[in-house]
Amino acid sequence: MGIVSPGFHGRRRKSAAELPPGQYLTNDFPVLSAGPTPRLREDEWEFTVTAESGREHRWTWREFLDLPAETPKVDIHCVTKWSKLGTEWEGVSLDVLLADVETEADFALVHSYGGYTTNLPLADLLEGQAWIVHRYNGEELAPEHGGPARLLVPHLYFWKSAKWVRGIRLTTENEPGFWESAGYHDYGDPWREQRYQGD
Ligand SMILES: Nc1nc2c(c(=O)[nH]1)N[C@H]1C(S)=C(S)[C@@H](COP(=O)(O)O)O[C@H]1N2
Ligand SMILES: [Mo]
Q1: Three-class DSSP category at 69
Q2: Ordered mean pLDDT values, 10 residues apiece, the chain (199 residues)
Q3: Nearest bound ligand to the CA of residue 79
Q4: What domains appear along the chain, each with residue ranges and CATH number?
Q5: Taking the model in full, what pTM does it have?
Q6: Which ligand 1 atom is the nearest neighbour of the CA of 163?
Q7: Distance CA 132, CA 118 (A)
Q8: Contact 170, 65 (CB under 8 A)
Q9: Does ligand 1 lie within 6 Å of residue 163's CB atom?
Q10: Percent of the chain at pLDDT above 90?
């Protein structure tokens, strides 16, 4: 009997073929932040959806916690090529947060405390594809991973999952966010390896 690598027991490992192209598996949870970690108290946190009409829908931390929560278990894929499988989160589906928002917009620009932005089609936030999450692995979301709360949109590269999320502005025109303005792909589908503009 040879040496068994740690973590190899129990559940079946996915092979590289089950990962998006160019990705490798990690069991760590790397921290990738373009700037300093904002330190926000929960009583300072609020989340705002702004429709293209200018109409705002706002939730305080307490109001957010009163919304029905889900516990998505998802694979995440960073454009720097690490993927992490079966990550467990808790949070509120964007279907819930956008349910009463009247809009004809096709695009969303997500804003974070600290100034980070990222854009995506509004349709990619709906139908069970995206959440505002405040817990990871059964614990409060750590500040370096976006706590008090972050966006989770796992079917796109992880730069779309804005940490320290502050709000979402719905727009009729597509407006590139922070990395999208810096040469990264506008949409960022890891299965089509849309890392950079032109991919
Ligand atoms: N506000 C904010 N959100 C962000 C980022 C950032 O720099 N600022 N980095 C993005 C990138 S590139 C990745 S890969 C993930 C990293 O999340 P993690 O640090 O929890 O692994 O957050 C994304 N969301
Ligand atoms: Mo990333």
Answers
A1: coil
A2: 44 66 96 95 96 98 98 98 97 98 98 98 98 98 98 98 98 98 98 97
A3: 2
A4: 39-192 (3.90.420.10)
A5: 0.93
A6: 3
A7: 14
A8: no
A9: yes
A10: 91
